[in-house]
């Protein structure tokens, strides 16, 4: 699973950080989502899916079948 | 097409103040969205599209063509009075103060506030009214922390809040108290302008004071008071009344700290204190394949959506504090989704177990079915909750 967040859409409510704190956090200044782990381990996948569904801004995109952001 | 019969859309079923009226369930089953007359003491009767399914409520509340419209009186600084870029500009100034981390940092203060409320309950003795001594003081004092109300002013502040938000006092008394509260907020803002405190209002003054007028800042203070007071007081009173009627579930909240977070989520889902969210379409929008036209009013029923069986394979009409956490719309959805929700969760997570731990034999002092529920107010709750232990 690979996660992308769109900071410009984020409403900074923090549901993601509440549900999957190992993967999402919020910037101190304005609460915008920050991604702690773009390719989280298996045990985080369920919480990440729940966080994605509960995000009021549709700011979280999941790519279930990818594991790495770039091939470099 | 407008239904000839009006649906009391915020309405709660006869016999169970927590359940929606049957008409809402019927509307939920219809494929076609209903247009009905909504009786509203505040706005006068109006015609509106009623949205009751979980997915539909989410989709309309997230639609940027749906505006607050004239559903609330305009108030400078109040986020609920703004839409679009003006709304996000103002909201951005506040989000940093309401993160999950900030809510965690406020925990010790909240614990202190809850302890002091529990002492007042104990002092009031057998028959104490929890609404007066517990559910109301907690949010008031938490807001004092957010606004930086000095300790010396807090008793006055509590009194003014109680009167200004009391539905039983006369309109004149309420207006006078609201005016006094506004004057008090203006004074607080002036003080923060001189030396910004380390709290929500102080931070806004420090970081954005140059971009905001005094009346916008006072409006922010007032908004936090109004949005964060009645909602918490109501959720606490409704949740306690509910648990007193389900002693086995009360025992879970009292005895199992690992169950607290899930229980609070279930209580939020079930109580849905802000039962309806009114909007107006700024352009044509679509819900599934159905059109809502520009200028039409829309009312989203949080109460019905939170029990939408389409959302899960569970029996959502029953309270079950142990069930796997269900999604709910108690804090709304989309750009106006409750700014204070992480703080709200923290207040409930601290307050409920603390109450049942301090008074392990807590029970109602009147039969539960005689409690006076505020079923028609904008925010649902219990007017008085006398208890013994
Ligand atoms: C259990 C308690 C609470 C409930 C059920 C609740 C519910 C809601 C709901 C449903 C909305 C959205 C209204 C709409 O979309 O029309 C909202 C907005 C808001 N809430 Fe809460 N709330 C609670 C506690 C709080 C607290 C503690 C605070 C802060 C001290 C707060 C501050 C706000 C603010 C500022 C807004 C306006 C956000 C905006 O328009 O962008 N709320 N709340
Ligand atoms: S849940 Fe969505 S809107 Fe809220 S902080 Fe996370 S990404 Fe942003």
From TrEMBL, chain B:
Keywords: Heme, Iron, Metal-binding, Monooxygenase, Oxidoreductase
Record-listed E.C. numbers: 1.14.-.-
MF (Gene Ontology): oxidoreductase activity
Enzyme class per UniProt: oxidoreductase
Pfam families (UniProt xref): p450
InterPro entries registered for this protein in UniProt: Cyt_P450, Cyt_P450_B, Cyt_P450_CS, Cyt_P450_sf
Bilayer-crossing regions: none
Keyword Oxidoreductase applies: yes
Keyword Iron attached: yes
Family: Belongs to the cytochrome P450 family.
Name this polypeptide is given: Cytochrome P450
Organism annotation: Streptomyces mutomycini
């Amino acid at each position: 699973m690979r996660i992308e967040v769109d900071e410009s859409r984020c409403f900074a409510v923090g549901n993601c950080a509440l549900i999957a704190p190992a993967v999402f956090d919020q910037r101190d200044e304005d609460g915008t989502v920050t991604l702690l782990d773009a390719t989280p381990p298996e045990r985080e996948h369920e919480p990440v899916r729940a966080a994605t569904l509960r995000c009021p801004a549709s700011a979280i995109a999941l790519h279930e079948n990818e594991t790495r952001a770039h091939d470099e | 097409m407008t239904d000839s019969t009006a649906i009391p859309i915020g309405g709660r079923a006869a016999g169970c103040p927590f359940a929606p009226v049957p008409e809402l369930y019927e509307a939920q089953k219809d494929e076609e969205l209903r247009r009905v007359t909504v009786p509203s003491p505040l706005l006068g009767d109006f015609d509106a599209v009623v949205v009751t399914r979980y997915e539909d409520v989410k989709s309309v509340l997230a639609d940027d063509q749906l505006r607050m419209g004239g559903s609330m009186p305009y108030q400078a600084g109040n986020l609920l009075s703004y839409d679009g870029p003006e709304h996000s500009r103002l909201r951005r100034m506040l989000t940093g103060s309401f993160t999950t981390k900030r809510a965690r940092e406020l925990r010790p203060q909240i614990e202190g506030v809850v302890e002091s409320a529990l002492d007042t309950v104990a002092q009031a003795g057998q028959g104490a009214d929890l609404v007066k001594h517990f559910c109301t003081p907690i949010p008031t004092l938490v807001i004092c922390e957010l606004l930086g109300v000095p300790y010396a002013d807090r008793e006055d502040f509590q009194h003014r809040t109680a009167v200004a938000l009391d539905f039983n006092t006369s309109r004149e008394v309420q207006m006078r108290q609201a005016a006094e509260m506004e004057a008090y907020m203006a004074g607080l803002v002036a003080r923060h302008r001189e030396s910004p405190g380390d709290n929500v209002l102080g931070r806004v003054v420090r970081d954005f004071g140059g971009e905001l007028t005094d009346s916008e800042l006072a409006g922010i203070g007032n908004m936090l008071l109004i949005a964060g007071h009645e909602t918490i007081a109501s959720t606490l009173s409704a949740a306690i009344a509910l648990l007193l009627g389900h002693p086995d579930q009360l025992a879970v909240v009292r005895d199992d700290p690992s169950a607290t977070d899930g229980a609070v989520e279930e209580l939020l889902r079930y109580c849905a204190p802000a039962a309806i969210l009114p909007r107006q379409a700024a352009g044509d929008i679509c819900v599934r394949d159905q059109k809502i036209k520009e200028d039409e009013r829309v009312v989203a029923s949080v109460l019905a959506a939170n029990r939408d069986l389409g959302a899960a394979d569970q029996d959502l009409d029953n309270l079950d504090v142990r069930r796997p956490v269900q999604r709910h719309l108690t804090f709304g959805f989309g750009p106006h989704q409750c700014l204070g929700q992480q703080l709200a969760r923290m207040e409930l997570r601290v307050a409920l177990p603390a109450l049942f731990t301090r008074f392990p034999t807590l029970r109602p002092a009147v039969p539960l079915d005689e409690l006076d529920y505020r079923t028609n107010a904008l925010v649902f709750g219990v007017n008085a909750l006398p208890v013994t232990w």
